[in-house]
């Protein structure tokens, strides 16, 4: 889709997208996991390591077999099964409430595929009304699994956008969902790549502490770089790698 330049911030956001798309490589939109798995895992993941979240998810399904089993389980037993998470006593009733709402919406099935047919606003409102489901999770699910044009923003995407300078310094992660979305074309494939690339960038190069600016292809127009090092010199730009080097720096996460 051709870029639409509507403001200096949109101009920067699209430049960021275009440079990181080249640096990390363009990806076809694809889900990380099935919609039900994505939704329930998110509830388990709050303040919990990925390994402990996965352990809780596996133990829950081992103990109760399937979604009807998880819903019918005594809540205290469900909490015990997911005990590797941070707040199992809060998360167990949440999971059962989410399953109840899904069942009530579908008339019995444990599927979220009706979201594909719903208008975006309706799908977003339904998801964010669930206990334990925020804008980031709802956006991830709708973008990754149903290719709706929304943008999940986590701390990595948020930090890169603020440092480069297309997101104001006082805009919260929650508010950034709408602000960044308004800067970008309503194109699910572009938004998927924008999310993945800026997420990787925050995780692998633009660290919270001591960002690895010498390795960064955004230095030529990054506000943080300008403030800390001055305008990027021809030498610094020439020394910047063109692409992510997986052999030297490691494989990118899923
Ligand atoms: S130049 Fe430095 S601060 Fe700016 S985006 Fe790159 S790593 Fe982050």
From TrEMBL:
Pfam families hit by this protein: HhH-GPD
Keyword Nuclease assigned: yes
Keywords linked to the UniProt accession: Endonuclease, Hydrolase, Nuclease
Residue span(s) of domain HhH-GPD: 44-204
Record keyword RNA-binding present: no
UniProt xrefs under CDD domains: ENDO3c (cd00056)
InterPro entries: DNA_glycosylase (IPR011257), HhH-GPD_domain (IPR003265), HhH_base_excis_C (IPR023170)
PANTHER family, per database record: HYPOTHETICAL BASE EXCISION DNA REPAIR PROTEIN (EUROFUNG), PTHR47203
UniProt-recorded name of the protein: Endonuclease III
Biological classification of the source: Bacteria, Pseudomonadati, Bacteroidota, Cytophagia, Cytophagales
